[in-house]
Amino acid sequence: MLRTFETNEEIYKIFKSICDREGEKVTKKINSMIEDYVKIHKEGNPQHTIDNFVKNEDFYGFPSIAVSKKDKSAWINSSRIKKEDLTTLFWHVQEYKTELEKKGYNF
Length: 107
Prior knowledge:
Elements: H1 9-21, H2 26-41, H3 50-55, H4 69-77, H5 83-102
């Protein structure tokens, strides 16, 4: 399917030269990036819909993995966090660890 889009000319030239250097066609690279984006964002994040924040003033989401350790620590140490929430978080982390170990990751 053919699509037309507008982009910054200078950025496109750099992107194309990178693709050329890596031996990849621009179209293939863009399609790959679109597929990756859809995989990540297709389902959204049902745990953190805007309704949760509106309906429940005590609602908060755990910081993303991309957030610095310092900022995560500040979040964990904030007075808003309830002990039972941290306990639940701890068990979820343990579950993730078990799943990753099944896939061959060792900690």
